[in-house]
Amino acid sequence: MDIDIERIRASFTKDHFAMNAGIVIDSVTKEEVQCSMPITSEHLNSAGTVHGGAIFTLADLAFGVHSNLRLFLGENIGITLGQSNCISYLAAPKGKRLIARSVCLSSGRNISVYRVEVHDDLGNFIAEMRGNGFTKAVR
Q: What are the sequence ranges of the domains in the chain?
């Protein structure tokens, strides 16, 4: 089954926090989801670097899209929500854009684990997040 990225983008417009941060869903395959976000003055903390919450929000949206991909492929399994996440910040971004790429490490009936790497547009490795999802049946 083909992945309808426009349908996925339309669904995630309801995520107002992520959309207000300027996050874009760039590409979606079964193997990888890529989202990106421009770095603007709105994303900076008091030290003048990108706020950790902005980086986390980008990583979390990539995780959210990827962990719910089966819904968009017609599997009526329920919605996957973040159960726990751990992020490591490795460097301050130097570029003008952040790019998050999610890969699935494990996906079972109820529990899934994703790895999200965040780089800047200059190729610097900025952060790594592990997202654990729990799939809840929709009633």
A: 5-136
2: Cβ–Cβ under 8 A, 6 or more apart, which residues?
Answer: none
Instruction: From 124, 131, 136, select the one nearest 59 (Cα to Cα).
Output: 131
pTM of the model: 0.94
Q: Which residues of the chain have pLDDT under 70?
A: 1, 139
Q: What is the mean pLDDT of the chain?
A: 94
Half-sphere exposure (Cβ direction) of 81: Cα atoms closer than 13 Å: 5
CA–CA distance, 48 with 27 (Å, rounded to integer): 30
Query: Beta 33-38 vs 24-28: how paired, if at all?
Result: antiparallel
| Class of the domain covering 5-136 | alpha beta
